[in-house]
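Objective 1b. Sequence-to-structure analysis of Cytochrome C oxidase copper chaperone-domain-containing protein.
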Amino acid sequence: TNSITTLTPTTSTTSTTSIKTSNIKPCCACPETKKNRDQCIFETGDEEKCKDLIEAHKACMRSFGFNV
């Protein structure tokens, strides 16, 4: 028998079960904040200048249940 699994995003931002049900990998969870963070660090070479972008990426990762 063929089985199709449909993944739907959860509305809870604090649920750690959303990771297990959707199998989101840390590398794929927050592409926009990751891109902005990496670009800032690459261009400035100074993490302190990119602190707000780093914190925004951490907040996004936490919203998917990752402990960062």
